[in-house]
Amino acid sequence: MRVVSPDVDYGMKSISWPYNFQFMRFPQGMPHTLILLSPLVTHGGNFCTINRIKSHLECQGFPCHLADPNDCTNESIFQHGGATGENVGVLVGIHALKTGAFMRGQKLPYILIIGGTDINVFCDEPKAMTVMTEAVLNARYVICFSKANKERTLKLWPKTLPSRIKVIPQGVVYVPGLPICDVHALISQATALVNSSDSEGMCLALLEAMQLGTPVIARDIPGNRAIVQDGHTGLLFDSPESFREKTEHLLEDSSLQKLLTREAAEYVDSHHNIQQERQEYTNLLDQCLRDLHKQRQMNV
Hints:
Layout: H1 19-25, E1 33-37, H2 45-59, E2 64-67, E3 88-94, H3 100-103, E4 110-113, H4 116-120, H5 126-137, E5 141-144, H6 147-156, E6 165-167, H7 180-189, E7 193-195, H8 204-212, E8 216-219, H9 222-225, E9 235-237, H10 240-252, H11 254-271, H12 274-299
Parallel strand pairs: 1-2, 1-3, 3-4, 4-5, 5-6, 7-8, 8-9
Helix pairs in contact: 8-11
GO molecular function: glycosyltransferase activity
Domain Glycosyl transferase family: 173-264
Organism: Plakobranchus ocellatus
């Protein structure tokens, strides 16, 4: 069970960095303000992901501003909290179609985070593929949430250099919305979390349940296979019959329940660590900004 609140605290305090810290981190003249683009529907996975990334980067001294690409124009993109064409360094956006459609027309460099619907749904639509292809090929870096998603991305866009595609698994953090006693009561009453989606990039609800010790049963699709190993960290089904069979097995076998919850929790702790996710995004943005700064200095 996953409850999302618009006022999200990801356990990472917002910091006002002193001038001397930012000067040491970012050389004089280096634009380092970031604009993060994503559909900002508050009760969706994109909203959680982009806010979590924003918290990561702000904790490392990057000034960040959120924007919805559906509400942006070439002029309004810089009207976010004092952002200007001079101090914005990089755009970071989720979804090759929804956000890529806007970013591909910008002169600023951008980092594109691939969404599950990009590589599982929209890729079957010729018009959408035209937009996404331009967005992917012009991105400074492309981020995928799993190795399986990277392989799928390279298959769809083989002209993309593999070195420009980075795999950064999503970190897991609890999003408050209900009093903690109510959340614990709901979790303790749940026998399992079921994901029956036909398309997933990386399902945060599954990861949260796995870390909380709730068994997961998920449809056998690439996005779910990337995080759920059938019979080890969860159960995968590919038909109504297999769903019923595996659910009955889970309900009848307490040793299976213990195995799944133990292995799932260990998997999330080792592969979806929130601190590791923060460091990987920070390293990538540092590298991107410094490369761009050197390039601009050479062109002066």
